[in-house]
Specification:
The chain contains ten helices and no strands. It is mostly helical. 23% of the residues are buried.
Length: 216
């Protein structure tokens, strides 16, 4: 398990500029490990799609999504950092952003590859998203599309939590402030890897006349 090497990756007590460096490092290093697993699952899911095995790809994508959920949940640990402590940690942390981590860059690339594999899968079978979403939810291809939507949604939830944390702890300023990192983070919140899936789902949603179904 190479546990000794893993536990030696954090700075020693005599090296830290503040005791909460350990909290920060553990949160981010564990994030990279979960993302490494997520990327491996996404990569294998793409291969299964290309092999015509959507059900197996669905299971792998579900595991990747759970990894991102765990990454998101552990952001709560970083809420224990005050803005003053975060500023004290800056000399040791540098100017890196969580969204610029190796794991997230690889996850983005793997997500795009997954979308390409799925598009090829549909084309090879003469399917489009309207036909797919008009069909049975039990269809493995339908379930895979929904797993992709769930992955997209979970990544979006992470972006929201990361943005809120940056405002709360990182003193990143507010939206609208020229040059504020908050502007850049806010723009990412609505990003979607698979916008065509979201559009297809929305286009098939029932449209009610104005006022119909409203709650008084």
């Amino acid at each position: 398990m190479r546990t000794d090497a893993l536990l030696d990756l954090q700075r020693r007590p005599e090296e830290v500029v503040h005791r909460d460096e350990l909290l920060f490092q553990v949160a981010h290093q564990s994030t990279e490990l979960w993302l490494k697993l997520a990327v491996a699952e996404l990569t294998e899911a793409s291969a299964r799609i290309e092999a015509g095995e959507p059900a197996q790809a669905d299971l792998l994508l579900t595991r990747a999504t759970l990894a991102v959920r765990l990454v998101t949940d552990q952001l709560e640990m970083l809420e224990h950092l005050t803005p003053a402590v975060f500023q004290a940690l800056q000399p040791a942390l540098g100017n890196g952003s969580g969204a610029e981590s190796p794991g997230w860059r690889q996850a983005q690339a793997a997500s795009r590859k997954l979308g390409q594999s799925f598009a090829g899968f549909l084309t090879a079978r003469g399917l489009d998203l309207v036909k797919l979403y008009s069909g049975e939810p039990s269809d493995p291809a339908y379930r895979l599309a929904e797993a992709m939507v769930e992955w997209d949604d979970r990544v979006s939830v992470w972006r929201v939590r990361h943005y809120k944390l940056a405002i709360r702890v990182g003193s990143h300023g507010v939206i609208g402030t020229t040059g504020s990192p908050a502007n850049w983070l806010a723009k990412l919140i609505d990003h979607r890897f698979y916008p065509e899936l979201w559009r297809a789902r929305a286009d098939l949603a029932p449209v009610h006349p104005a006022g119909e179904g409203s709650v008084a």
